[in-house]
Please model this.
Amino acid sequence: MTGIVSDTHAMIAAMAPELRPGRYAFVGCGERADLIAACREAAIAMFAEDEGPSFVIPFETAVALGIDALPMCQITLTVHSALDGVGLTAAAAGALAVHGIPCNMIAAFHHDHIFVPEARAGEAMAALLELQRGSP
Model:
């Protein structure tokens, strides 16, 4: 399917989850300027929170910086979902919840990205593919 998809069932049917290479960590830096600078340079995502910036960085970078973090894997839902589309992230998170798989969702401009603990990445992919196949 090409173009932006906004219908819930069409988004789920076309989501085509892809397990991306690499491991990532979610990091909160507080107000430490040195840590903020290092994380900003390595970040694949950043969000400004009241407590200070949060980053998603390569897990190996977190380890090198002395940060204790959970290794996460990235699954990209490759459908170009509409920013005003309803239900894709809820359906994906719900499918993972049924299997007891924690997830952190990031909705970007083109795609939705799901971060799951590395140890559960295979199970997460199976659950998401099951959801996709079951979509009317």
